Structures are given as C-alpha cells and as structure tokens.
Amino acid sequence: MAKEKKSFFEKLTGAKKIEDEGESMPVYSDDEEAEMTMNTSTTPSTEENWPSDAEGQLTIDVYQTENDVVIKSTIAGVKPEDLDVAINNDMITIKGERKNEEVVENENYYYQECYWGSFSRSVVLPVDVIADKAEASLKNGILTIRLPKADTTKAKKIQVRGF
Fold first, then answer.
1. Phi, psi at residue 116, to the nearest 5°?
2. What values do phi and psi take at 135, rounded to 5?
3. pTM above 0.90, yes or no
4. Are strands 91-98 and 83-88 parallel, antiparallel or unpaired?
5. Where are the domains of the chain?
6. Staple partner for 87: which of 17, 78, 104, 131, CB 3.0–4.6 Å?
7. For residue range 29-51, what is the model confidence (pLDDT) as tens digits?
8. Is the per-residue pLDDT at 81 higher than 50?
9. Radius of gyration over alpha carbons of the chain, in Å?
C-alpha cells in the first residue's frame, strides 16, 4: 500500500483524511440543532462543574506613560469596596468578586458566558514603582491603577559613619 503524503493541516492537527464512502453527514433542522447545542453546552454551571475554589482571571492592559505604569481592566458589576488591590515588591494583585443578584436555574439559560464569582489577576511590574503613591479608580466599569515610576537613574547617597 502506497503511503500518501499528509497535508499541512493533517500534519499540524494530527487529523486523518477520511475517504468518502458515500456516507453523508446528517442534516438537522434549526430547532434540532439548537436543542443539541443547549444540551451539550460546555458552559459550566457554578454549582456543578466549577471547583469551589476556582477563580476567574481578569483581562488587563498594562502600559507606561512618562511618569507612570498604568493598568486598566474591565470590571463591570463590581463595587469598589469589593475590590482588593495589593502591591508586593515587583508584583500587583487585583482580587474581587462579581456577585449575581438574580438566581436563574441552569435549564432556563440560553447562553451563560458571563463569569460570576471571585476573580484575581497578578502581574509582574515591568519597572520599579513607588507603591505608597499608587492610585486606583473605578469609573464606568473600568478599573484604572496608576503606579508612579521610581526614579532608578538617581543615585542615592548615604552617609558612612565610623565608630
């Protein structure tokens, strides 16, 4: 039996080419397809499939200005008092919880894509910052953290004392 050359897609994915033996794919009506999609959804419910200690992860933008490192994140539906921002050495951690005010049974969902529950994100800061002068604000669901850069180009002189 002659060995066939694999296509790029087959090499990339490990998929195998299946010869057409006259069989066709089943065709479903829109209602049947929608029913299968809802019943085989991979969207986990909080109670059933997520571990109780699972946390969501924030999406963030980190950029610099001349004087600051700025971190922005969309945190809709979270009150400022439900957020915890901690700076430790060269790392910043943002923690919080998005609470779902309404209880909905899983079978009543058409789509369930929003994350409800605790979340966190830790980021290694690209430059030294002055943690004591950091500021955080929450406006229109956008968390903005401004971290003043430490001036590492200045040499700090210290007095040498003799005993």
1. -120, 130
2. -130, 140
3. no
4. antiparallel
5. 56-148
6. 131
7. 666 666 655 554 444 444 445 45
8. yes
9. 26
Residue 127 token pair: 């430059």
Query: What pLDDT shows up at residue 111?
Result: 87
Written as six digits, the tokens of 125 are 């800061």
Q: 56-148 sits in which CATH class? A: mainly beta
In this structure, which amino acid lies at residue 117? G
Q: Per the structure block, which two tokens stand in for 110?
A: 């058409």
Using H for helix, E for strand and C for coil, what is the string for the chain? CCCCCCCHHHHHHCCCCCCCCCCCCCCCCHHHHHHHHHHCCCCCCCCCCCCCCCCEECCEEEEECCCEEEEEEECCCCCHHHEEEEEECCEEEEEEEECCCCCCCHHHCCCCCCCCEEEEEEEECCCCECHHHCEEEEECCEEEEEEEECCCCCCCCCCCCCC
